[in-house]
Fold these 3 entries.
Entry 1:
Amino acid sequence: MNQKTRSAPPRAMAMLESLRGLGYSTAAALADIIDNSISAGADKVQIDFVWNGPNSRVSVLDNGCGMTDAELEGAMRLGDKNPTDARSPHDLGRFGMGLKTASFSQCRRLTVASVKSGERSCLRWDLDELAANPNSEWLLFEGPAPGSEAHFQPLNGEASGTLVLWENLDRIITEGYNSDNFNDLIDDVESHLAMVFHRLIQGPHARLQLVLNRRPIAPWDPFMSGHPAKPWTSPIAHHKTDYGTIAVQCHVLPHRDKLSNAEPPASE
Ligand SMILES: Nc1ncnc2c1ncn2[C@@H]1O[C@H](COP(=O)(O)OP(=O)(O)OP(=O)(O)O)[C@@H](O)[C@H]1O
Ligand SMILES: [Mg+2]
């Protein structure tokens, strides 16, 4: 039976605006960006929050393998990779969406500059510019927004690495938001990243250094490994799945009476 078909390309603006509602917190969105840096082999990731009222910005700089111009174009495209394709075991990505969905959950302008083999490329999504041209195609701009060039200086002289810049932080900087709120957000982000990446940033031979506004983030282990007041930790059980072996371990955390104020239990 012959079926009639019609092409149904998404409308850029409608699609991008609806992707903004995926419910990321700022900290979870940053964790997605940092996952990409880790997949790119970075051992240092620097996150910077810069308060400047409505022109405040957030950037993530890594020293990973970077991207060529063509790779960067693919990275900025929505769903460039098929989630069912096999990936390298060290690649934390799956859907080909994280960079865009995480960023648009926080900002209206996403600019990514990357250096690979000494060559630099830079591409930008700008939802305000797209909104001003509603019938436009999927417009990716080349280079930083006018006036934002200096924010990419940290990549100067680097052989490889990537800088992700979020500007027009409309989901963060809402009516009445001030620098105190911004500082509270930075604290929030610090504790979340300290927990999510604690295995990678702990120990003298840590695999990763995470730096937030020029201060290294110290790990926070929610399992309180090695704490003398932990009543019980199970042996590690191994479960085979179609996707590899999963190690499972149960932890019972110390009673709160056995903790000092400097050791908040995981539920707090
Ligand atoms: N910091 C980075 N350094 C090098 N390559 C990157 C970086 N960030 C993104 N990329 C490239 O861009 C691609 C798209 O990233 P994106 O986060 O959108 O999707 P993903 O990581 O493939 O999957 P997921 O949606 O699960 O995060 C990545 O697969 C990677 O090839
Ligand atoms: Mg990703």
Note: Residues 80 and 96 are 6 Å apart (CA to CA).
Entry 2:
Amino acid sequence: MAGLLAVRVLTDHFDRVTLVERDRFPAGAAFRPGVAQSRHLHVLWTRGLELMEDLFPGLEQTLLGAGAEDIGVPSDLLWLTSAGWRKRFEVTRLLTFSRPLLDWAVHSRLAGDAALSLDVLEDNEVTGLLTRGPDVAGVALRSGETIAADLVVDTTGRGSRAPAWLAALGYPAPPETLVDPLLGYASRYYAVPDGFDPGWKALYLQADPPATRRTGGLFPQEGGRWICSLSGAGRDYGPTEENAFLDFAKGLRDPVLYEAIRDAEPLSPITGFRRTANHRRHYERLPAWPRGFVVMGDATCAFNPIYGQGMSVAALSAMALDRCLREDRDDAERRFQRRAARSAAGAWLVATGEDLRYRETEAAPTRLTTRVINAYVDRVVAAANVDRHVCASLLDVLALTSAPASLFSPAVLARVAASGLRRPTER
Ligand SMILES: Cc1cc2nc3c(=O)[nH]c(=O)nc-3n(C[C@H](O)[C@H](O)[C@H](O)COP(=O)(O)OP(=O)(O)OC[C@H]3O[C@@H](n4cnc5c(N)ncnc54)[C@H](O)[C@@H]3O)c2cc1C
């Protein structure tokens, strides 16, 4: 996704853009191995969708036309937070669809636009960088070809080899931060039963760390399907075996998800995914940086996916790339790495702040400030369950529309203080 969004931006700045992809792009909304995570629940928050719509006007209509569901949040979402059930206010809306549908919608817009000067090299692979002194001058491919380029954008995801490529050019390794909640997903598609109408369209049952570590999501997708993603932190991984999957669902903090899927018709095998650590490579801190090269998307900052931020942060980074190239070509690469780091900062704080609540999380020792902030966030979550305005502020932060600091504004502080720790217990 980071690559596709970057390509769209680059076509505005360069005469010719080449997209190199290891896979072949499928003809429709289908799975491909390079996006193995696409068999799991993907939520695209409002900010991410807005930015993608800016890049591809009409994208939202394409998704809706292909069967994406438009759900009210939390009005159509039965949401068990760490502090109890959230009242079903109408605060915002979300489109829900499968990840392959989004990938197809974006890719087909790029591939189908004859006005874009774009070459797509599929079933090929970047194996290294071409260099000119200390700078990057293009890429070498698995096929033996080389491509000369003014700018190379690495969007190869968590497996990016940029640190090794940079080391070969004489640059130091980027400092890295790892916050690993040891979390694993297991997911399966189901047919939504005929006439199913319990008064909600989607379910999200969160863990309450450190006491409980399991989360379950059941969201509608195009084609009359649900995707059910179960995840557990602290090595309590979502299981891929049939009975264990149902047992795990039964062990969530409320049986509603289990009761929904128990008799529903499975449409797919159960698949697992465990590469979920929060992992940041701080390219923005390197004292020197080559011209002609940038790194974006999961390759520079990957999140525990349970908070649904990766694609939206990729969209923010694509916009940052656009701004940097518009401002001044000189030194745009370094400015981009700094801006991309800033674009990811809020999401990083949310994801790691939450993950540090699990006892098993592997990370540097938790600071006192994190514990104090988390104690306040507990109060915000409890207040958001009963107060529509606090709920809207919290959703703005989760949806990356506002910075986490906005939760400390006087208006939110006052409402949080006024609502106390009331916990609505009814669904
Ligand atoms: C289980 C799970 C659930 C998730 N849920 C959400 C969610 O709800 N919401 C959300 O916003 N995000 C979610 N994410 C994160 C999201 O999937 C990523 O942040 C998003 O895909 C952006 O990643 P990317 O494009 O940087 O890298 P990737 O998606 O990893 O894509 C990398 C691409 O590079 C290609 N590639 C790799 N190496 C090479 C090479 N050497 N040469 C050529 N091509 C190469 C791959 O084939 C692939 O196409 C989830 C992630 C996981 C694991």
Note: The radius of gyration is 22 Å.
Entry 3:
Amino acid sequence: MSNTVVIGAGPAGLTAAYELSKLGVKSTVLEADQLVGGISRTVDYKGYRFDIGGHRFFSKVPLINQLWDEMLDEDFMLRPRLSRIHYRGHFFDYPLSAKNALQGFGAIESLLVGLSYLKAKCIPNGEESNFEQWVSNRFGVRLYNIFFKTYTEKVWGIPCTEISADWAAQRIKNLSLTEALRSALIGSGGKTKDGQIITTLIDEFKYPRYGPGQMWESCERILADKGNETIRGLRAERIRHKNGRVECVYARSDSGELVEFGGEHFLSTMPLRELVNCLDPKPPGEVIRAANELRYRDYLTVVLVVNRESIFPDNWIYIHTPEVKMGRIQNYKNWSPHMVPDSSRSSLGLEYFLWEKDDEWEWPDERLIELGIKESAKLELVEPSEVEDGTVVRMKKAYPVYDQTYQDHLAVIQRYLATIENLQTIGRNGQHRYNNQDHSMLTGVYAARNIVGESYDIWGVNVEKEYHEEGELETKTGGDRLVPSRMVPSEEDESNDELIRAAFAKLDPVAMGSAVGLVGGIGLFLATSALMIAGGPNVGANLKLLGNYLPGFDASWIGAIIGGVEIGILGFVMGSVGAGLRNWSMSAYTSFVKRRAEEKLSRDILDKV
Ligand SMILES: Cc1cc2nc3c(=O)[nH]c(=O)nc-3n(C[C@H](O)[C@H](O)[C@H](O)COP(=O)(O)OP(=O)(O)OC[C@H]3O[C@@H](n4cnc5c(N)ncnc54)[C@H](O)[C@@H]3O)c2cc1C
């Protein structure tokens, strides 16, 4: 009997098995599909290889970078990145640059964009509760419509007026306060605080020679070499538990056979909604209801094989043109030349973001390919006659949706699952979290280590750590990528402002005035008194000069009191005015820092959608 049963051979499940194997624990991985890699798979169609979307490999977690290098070695390449925005016949640089945008618009549209920007700056919308208002206030309505509205709505299927402004504002929270200050003062010089070049993430990324699936096929092979099984084509459909422990998993094979897998520990990467509904006996009604309320955005790729050596230089293009449904287009040959079997051909992946209930989801492949050809021609990227072949891949539950209620539902499910001691849920849909591969993998590593007695907080991966001692600020809802939520009143901005307020704590003018006045007044009184007590032929000759400025002051006991009071009053006025001026300049400076940081980060928002 294998010690651990892992459900799902995506990055999280395979990494967990890999870490377990290093720790000397055997595992069996059950995979419903005929491919490993989950959403990070590579599909092979007649030698043309393509991703679900495009999978860049980058991580700020050193352990994950080390694991990728171990799993793939020299087939892990560093690739250049180019991705532009297509809008009504024009290509715009990405990240956005004002100069290039204005060139693309032409004179009249540039003027209108400029006027709309000026209007936003002079007469901003007083309310900033939704995404549309937030972006329009910073860029003007016209730029918002071109660069933000269409793409965001295509990806999320929610009108921007219903997306909370927090979603956009959240980006500023990824900046550490010290970094924001440093960049405002001396410029960041393109480096993060740990010295990495920021542009690295934007301009280059790592990628397996034959696509992301190669990483996971390699991991599966390494596992097999060490005596761990990965079984494809087995869908877990019943998880039997008793007295707070899972006893076994029943999985159905493609041929319909039900196979039982017992074990001591169980890890699941299947979507939480499915997991809860597989439990036997069933959890209480409120847990099932919570699970059934979790929502997912689905996704499909239309792949076109095109008889042209080079179509465009980008790895991918964001399609903002509102006249087509396509949201993004991938050119796999530019990710890696090894993704096509014939260098005189190219293969494009046209990405459509859908709900399963949308009509297009049910369309036959031929109709979707036809749509893809028509839209590519409309964008003037491809001539229909150049398309030689095509295929469609549907990926259900590609994006866990963060709506207004998901956190409450998640809390109910989490509380219940915590009662089953030998079951851990990991990965993207396993935790209903908008993780990239790295964070999905990290949950796998932690779960494996927990099995051998450590106690990592798996639910704490990719979650905001609030403001902690080192002065860092991180996001709360989690995810390097941002997921919009429908509008809810937020305490996030307040806590951010709190932080800035704490860092630049205001001086109380009355307290400051009183302190300066008291110190000055008492100081003068004591100095005069000391000279009086010391005595001599000409007491306090120098001090007497103060009498020119302080009426009634001289080197006598009465003079000391009058002078002390006068200095006290003068000190109070100077102290409170000084505190007021300091508060005003700090507040102007923090607004400047915040605004500059926001503007800098707005440039790469699309990467995070
Ligand atoms: C369009 C798109 C682009 C992306 N781009 C990037 C990127 O550039 N870089 C990056 O790092 N990440 C990217 N990601 C995220 C990345 O794909 C995921 O983080 C990662 O695949 C999650 O791994 P996982 O193992 O948690 O889940 P999954 O990849 O979903 O794997 C889960 C596996 O479990 C299997 N399974 C489910 N139910 C059962 C069951 N009942 N029985 C048995 N098996 C089951 C599934 O078939 C699947 O193989 C992207 C995601 C999308 C949708």
Note: Confidence is low (pLDDT under 50) at residues 171-181, 183-201, 465-480, 488-496.
